[in-house]
Design a protein that fits this description.
Helix content: 25-40%
Oligomer: single chain
């Protein structure tokens, strides 16, 4: 039996940015912070979660199929909001609007802007821009590891942390050298911050355009080997193992991991007790490189009975034109086997979080030849639906999916995040309400992002977001 469907009209909850008064009855609540899920009633008054009453309905409640779900607001560890310098693709305002539409109430912005976030003055500017946007979605910026992201000189990490940086990363580029990474890990440990690295050995990826596999070979696209990621991960883990002898609170986070070999290395490192965490993107767990050739099935549908990638040409799975530049990403889409390995690593806890790697680009950057296109897919608005597709296969539980968007990201950032990722009475309400039984179509009309570079245009996704409440205020309400 499903929970009763809740319809929330905008006039029932007020205007965007206003403190909220709301009662939700018989919704299915999931709170990974406490490990609790089930039917519950929630009352929000003046923006605070006045009460949450869990209904004890015995064993029968566990057999109910939740339709309307209430979960803590999602936290995105990895988004590119482009401002300053890339406003034609996205702004702080449009990025936060897209986040609210996708159920995200906290967004961590990457520092590869123009100018890059390597100066406290840029962080101050971002704070002003966020306030000007008027969204209650919390912007939590990262700062650069190196000045100008050039990989040569360490950025002023202490001053950047004091100015509000929650982590350090040169994303878009890997931390250039083991020595620079070592210095960053040691310094960041003193600041209670995590270093976030983009694992790529650029000596192996120069000129690469697609995964080094059958599909890329047939399409004539220069190959990007899995070894480029595995080697970079193993380098980072070796440096971390050396650093923790001197700084036991040093922490490393590896972002957008995409290969089985890299995940295996991280799994082994965790088993040894190394303080490493990682995230995967929704596109790397759900899309395979066969999409470049024109396939449009989910990665788990492209696996045969032996767990091997099926041939899209023999399966007659090619239903769209090849070389869709919205599929050009860094790291590239991998084989279906790698994608399913990402999903399995999420399910078993090796992966700590799902991060969107929301990377908006305008038409000028994408409507070109495949090899000349900018890397990136927008993801803030489609992540929930993609994960719910995985949940529907039985490969991932709903609770684990929600944890990877809430408690998992919060654990990566630790106290630097400065918020609790749970449904906590007395605290400002911070949650998302979505309807699993209702779908929405990804289209230019429905997206809030300024850019449209997603291969999911025209596809119906489950999990229509009904309401997003951030820091006690209305961020989004479905019409």
């Amino acid at each position: 039996m499903a929970t009763g469907r809740t319809v929330i009209a905008p006039e029932a909850v007020g205007t965007t940015g206003a403190p909220l008064d709301l009662e939700l009855t018989d919704a299915w609540a999931i709170d990974p912070a406490t490990g609790r899920s089930g039917p519950a009633d929630l009352v929000v008054q003046a923006g605070r979660l006045e009460s949450i009453v869990w209904r004890d309905e015995g064993r029968g409640a566990r057999n109910r199929v939740p339709a309307v779900v209430v979960a803590p607001g999602f936290i995105d560890l990895h988004a590119h909001l482009r401002e300053p310098g890339g406003e034609e693709a996205e702004t702080i305002a449009t990025g936060l609007a897209a986040a609210a539409h996708g159920g995200f109430t906290t967004v961590c912005a990457m520092p590869n802007t123009n100018p890059p976030i390597d100066d406290p003055a840029v962080l101050a500017w971002l704070e002003t821009a966020s306030a000007r946007a008027g969204s209650p979605v919390l912007l939590r910026p990262y700062a650069c590891v190196s000045l100008r992201r050039a990989g040569e000189t360490l950025a002023p990490l202490g001053a950047l942390a004091d100015a509000g940086a929650v982590a350090f990363s040169d994303d878009g580029s890997p931390v250039a050298s083991p020595g620079l990474l070592r210095s960053a890990l040691l310094y960041a440990a003193e600041l209670a911050r995590v270093v976030v690295d983009h694992p790529e050995d650029r000596a192996l990826t120069e000129g690469a355009e697609a995964n080094d596999d059958l599909v890329g070979t047939v399409l004539g696209l220069p190959g990007w080997p899995a070894a480029a990621e595995v080697a970079a991960v193993e380098r980072d883990l070796a440096v971390l193992a050396d650093v923790v002898r001197d700084a036991r609170n040093a922490r490393l986070h590896l972002t957008h991991v995409s290969t089985r070999g890299a995940l295996d290395a991280i799994r082994r490192a965790k088993a040894r007790g190394l303080p490493v965490t990682c995230d995967i993107t929704p596109h790397h767990l759900s899309l395979a490189d066969e999409w470049l050739a024109g396939a449009r099935r989910w990665a788990w549908e492209a696996i045969d009975a032996d767990g091997r990638s099926r041939d899209p040409w023999r399966d007659e799975a090619l239903v769209a034109p090849p070389f869709d530049t919205s599929l050009r990403v860094n790291p590239p889409l991998r084989s279906a086997e790698d994608a399913v390995a990402c999903l399995a690593a999420l399910a078993d806890g090796t992966v700590d979080a799902v991060a969107t790697d929301h990377a908006p680009h305008g038409a000028v950057a994408k409507e070109v030849e495949f090899g000349a296109a900018a890397n990136g897919i927008i993801g803030l608005e489609t992540t929930l639906g993609t994960l719910l597709e995985a949940v529907a296969t039985g490969r991932l539980t709903l609770e684990r999916a929600i944890a990877a968007l809430t408690a998992g990201p919060a654990s990566v950032l630790g106290r630097a995040l400065d918020r609790s990722p749970g449904l906590i009475e007395g605290e400002p309400a911070d949650f998302v309400v979505f309807d699993r039984s209702s779908s929405w179509r990804v289209s230019e009309a429905t997206l809030r992002s300024r850019s449209r570079n997603t291969p999911l245009l025209g596809r119906d996704l489950p999990g229509r977001v009904l309401l997003t409440v951030a820091d006690g205020r209305l961020a989004y309400a479905a019409s």
